[in-house]
Write a structure and sequence with these properties.
Length: about 150
């Protein structure tokens, strides 16, 4: 491989910054893109969480077999999507909560009213976390949520 090329053989001389102004402009464009993607994630995540809340509220009207099907399919998929995206967009606590939900759904075949209440609490916690800025730390909230998840695992 020649100097000034990457592993694909791309010649950096054709892509080199000609000035510090070019580098600053490119960095600004990258930051704007990240901000836009994060904003889209937050909109989609909040819609997903509202849908998850609605699913949980509607389970009280369902037969046991239908409730199980809805939780194991629609509710699980929404949690799984949040699990995969949370950390990417600066919300690792959302990933932890959603991962907890997915694990609980996989372990169980029947979901009690207590399970539904627990899922509702998890969804509410994710909504609260998403009110913060990406990568913002709130140690008190994080500790509280992690303790809840730990107690729920016992």
């Amino acid at each position: 491989m020649k100097l000034n090329t990457d592993v694909t053989g791309t010649n950096f001389n054709n892509h080199a910054f000609h000035s510090e102004k070019d580098a600053i402009s490119l960095e600004k464009k990258a930051q704007d893109l990240i901000h836009s993607l994060t904003k889209s994630f937050l909109q989609e995540a909040n819609l997903s969480l509202l849908h998850m809340q609605q699913i949980l509220n509607d389970t009280s009207f369902l037969k046991e077999s239908e409730k199980t099907r809805v939780i194991q399919s629609i509710f699980f998929q929404a949690a799984h999507d949040l699990k995969g995206q949370g950390t990417t967009y600066g919300y690792p606590l959302v990933t932890k909560i959603a991962s907890h939900i997915c694990s609980k759904i996989k372990k169980q075949k029947i979901y009690s009213n207590e399970d539904i209440f627990s899922f509702k609490k998890d969804v509410s916690n994710m909504i609260e976390v998403l009110q913060m800025q990406p990568n913002q730390k709130n140690l008190k909230l994080e500790t509280h949520i992690l303790k809840q998840l730990e107690c729920d695992n016992e």
